[in-house]
């Protein structure tokens, strides 16, 4: 109803007349605006945060805020922190391993085996990725495992938390009947986690990750 009143306002009708036509007190109308406008703003900002977080999965809220500013998006770091906490996008810093070369999250990373591969048959190389799906004023997350040759989806998982469990569930589905020679993913904490890499190693799968971005 608030949207209908806004449309009448665009046509030149006063707020008082529009509210009267719908039998809606003006105080109720203004309260509805105070509730819906922040949600819309949050949804737009969430989308921007998601794009940065999925590209730079090891960024904390301060670095994501700076990246948003660099892209011309006005965002307060406290608001970014709140939204990232609500969407489970805050990285948990782990104790650093000696073997790691990734200074962002401190988890072990692996060489890029996929770059030198000539893919001619299924199950030579699997590729995993994470994305998000916008639903109104919230997001859900999708983890997928694809065969690089056939592009067939072998495993998937939907969830409200962007964590290692989401990615691991998709991998477990894919490994039920098949396994690849090499598994390739980004260096995000979901794929570098011990839960995920241990499952690959236990299945005899070689792990591949891209080089660090300059």
Give structural attributes.
alpha/beta, Nucleotidyltransferase, domain 5, 5 strands, 43% helix, 214 residues
Describe the structure.
The chain is of the alpha/beta class. It has two domains: 2-86, no CATH class; 114-208, 2-Layer Sandwich (Nucleotidyltransferase, domain 5), CATH 3.30.420. The protein is built from eight helices and five strands; from the N terminus they run αααααβββαβααβ. It has a five-stranded mixed sheet. 28% of the residues are buried. Mean pLDDT is 77; it is low at 34-40 and 92-103.
Please tally the β strands and state the result: 5
| Mass-distribution shape | elongated
CATH architecture label of the largest domain: 2-Layer Sandwich
Low-confidence stretches: 34-40, 92-103
At the third CATH level, what is the topology name of the largest domain? Nucleotidyltransferase, domain 5
Look at the structure and give the mean pLDDT.
Answer: 77
Summarize the entry for a quick read.
The chain is α/β, with parallel strands linked by helices. Helix content is 43%, strand content 16%.
How are the SSEs placed, and which strands pair?
Blueprint: H1 2-10, H2 15-22, H3 26-55, H4 61-70, H5 77-86, E1 125-135, E2 138-147, E3 153-159, H6 164-174, E4 182-184, H7 189-192, H8 194-202, E5 206-208
Parallel strand pairs: 1-4, 4-5
Antiparallel strand pairs: 1-2, 2-3
Helix pairs in contact: 1-2, 3-4, 4-5
